[in-house]
């Protein structure tokens, strides 16, 4: 936009924007992040002092334009002022059409708020949806019953029951969302009935204190109930661990019952059952609080802190992921298991964090892509004939020895020139250059898949 770009004053401008990261899915951290561009504040911009090109506007006019835009809340890089909508909607973004599952649109008719879903007849026929041309819902048809329900659900003698039901039935994120919706409605009612903002804040403080006290009593009750109903530590740990890895509010309560912190990050450790896994479990329990149990043919541990040096030195192989909040541990366990699988596939030992083998885990988890790779290079395998396995072993050893032919030769008990010749043979037959970055990744994956399929 010309009115907000200082370049049109004849100066160069840098650092107007920065790249930030946001989660692709807040309920599944394993999906990772994506980059988003954000405006920096104007005082962070770097503007050249000298004129570098012919200006289209003088400095005084440009500053006057910025002042006008800032007053309107449309300036770039400054404080954006959120304009109140002319017609507010209590259930904005929350009402969906039952016929087509689309979010409805707000519309005012004769001073009353409605939620409308318009579905053109051509779209309805094309998608085979029996949908009226217009669906209307009047807002006050919802606010009346909702106000009645809120008044009954949050009366003093029922508020504890309501909060407990919210905690048991909904994930923590959904509870927070519901509370925001409730208090948004409370603000609307307070404004309509002349309740001051200070009084509403006092009520909110009382509610927060009450809710925190109820949650604390609920957690205490869960601890007492769990300790009394399952006296066997092994069974109790397994039950707690399963609840913990389910996610949501159940995970938060399970963490509290196990004595794990519910606000700080937790680590998930995964290993194969056996003597080495028993050593890992003993080392983990030496630094409580920690929760360990065998479930689904894996030894799984949830730790309140990063593993110690002694745990790393047990000589076993284990996958590690985290830290994360209790309600996010389900995807973290999957990441720890992926780290274990990736470590085992390359013969690694020790404690392997998923971040150290992220690309390797991505490859080993995609059997469908491995099949595509095998199909693509099946002719090359046939061309190599009886030497195919020895060539694949040589390429793997060479890549995993940082392309050092001496180390690779010692690993396979062959002469370094044998490694060189087999790597050249591989490149000639497949057309893959294992000396390049991406060629090396393809070569490593292909040779590993070849050898795995051959056995």
Low-pLDDT stretches are 26-30, 77-82, 227-233
Helix/strand class: alpha+beta
Helix content: 40-55%
| Chain-averaged pLDDT | 76
What can you tell me about this protein's structure?
- The structure is a single chain.
- This protein is an alpha+beta fold.
- It is about 50% helix and about 15% strand.
- It is built from 18 helices and 12 strands.
- The strands form 4 sheets. Strands 9-10-8-11-12 form a 5-stranded mixed beta sheet, with helices on both faces. It has a 3-stranded antiparallel beta sheet with strand order 5-6-7.
- Helix 6 crosses helix 8 and helix 7 packs antiparallel against helix 8.
- The N and C termini lie far apart (about 65 Å).
- About 5% of the residues have low confidence.
Short description:
This protein is an alpha+beta fold. Helices cover 51% and strands 14% of the residues.
Helix and strand layout, with pairings?
Layout: E1 13-14, E2 17-23, E3 33-39, E4 46-47, H1 59-71, E5 105-109, E6 112-118, H2 121-126, E7 134-138, H3 140-153, H4 159-169, H5 172-192, H6 197-229, H7 233-244, H8 248-257, E8 266-271, H9 275-285, E9 290-295, E10 298-303, H10 309-312, E11 317-324, H11 329-345, E12 350-353, H12 358-364, H13 367-376, H14 378-384, H15 388-400, H16 405-412, H17 416-430, H18 437-454
Parallel strand pairs: 11-12
Antiparallel strand pairs: 1-4, 2-3, 5-6, 6-7, 8-10, 8-11, 9-10
Task: Identify the notable features of this structure and list them briefly.
3-stranded antiparallel beta sheet, 51% helix, 12 strands, alpha+beta
